[in-house]
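ok, trying the design again with the full structure, not the truncated one.
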């Protein structure tokens, strides 16, 4: 499957009401589901301090402070990561 979702914005740079609506419409998903849609290289650019592990995937998977979600951002489907209370939004271009 081609990974078609790319980083668009984080909650610090977005309008609060757009993020609030996205969070309200979201459902939590697994690490595997998230990365079956989102481009790994995009995530690596945002979180360069996490490493790739050939057995485990990105070590971000093991961070208890990280959650993965599917939702809608400004009327478009999206996936997002919550890392230390900041939402990182990935959409299709």
């Amino acid at each position: 499957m081609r990974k078609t979702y790319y980083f668009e914005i984080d909650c610090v740079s977005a309008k609060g009401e757009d993020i609030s609506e996205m969070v309200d419409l979201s459902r939590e998903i697994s690490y595997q589901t998230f990365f079956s849609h989102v481009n790994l290289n995009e995530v690596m650019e945002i979180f360069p301090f996490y490493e790739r592990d050939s057995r485990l995937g990105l070590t971000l998977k093991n961070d208890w402070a990280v959650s993965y979600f599917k939702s809608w951002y400004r009327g478009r489907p999206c996936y997002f990561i919550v890392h230390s209370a900041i939402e990182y939004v990935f959409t299709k271009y």
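Keeping the full-length input from now on. The mean pLDDT is 87.
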